[in-house]
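Researcher: We plan to redesign the surface later, but first we want a full-length starting point. Tokens attached.
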């Protein structure tokens, strides 16, 4: 394998690893928002945790799509 191609492959693997780490972090944010939502009593906080939960889910979907694109290339 040529040096440039090997370097590009290493960069790709590093980026996939970074994205997977972000996925794990985002999964934790989803779980946290869900737990906080389930325990919230104040209507304002219920709304807050719904938005937090939805935002984390959207970020998770985006990161998952990025990982799939990198793995396919």
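Model: Full-length starting sequence:
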């Amino acid at each position: 394998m040529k040096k440039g191609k090997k370097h590009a492959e290493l960069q790709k693997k590093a980026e996939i690893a970074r994205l997977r780490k972000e996925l794990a972090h985002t999964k934790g944010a989803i779980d946290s928002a869900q737990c906080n939502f389930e325990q919230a009593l104040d209507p304002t906080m219920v709304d807050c945790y719904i938005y937090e939960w939805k935002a984390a889910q959207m970020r998770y979907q985006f990161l998952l799509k990025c990982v799939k694109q990198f793995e396919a290339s």
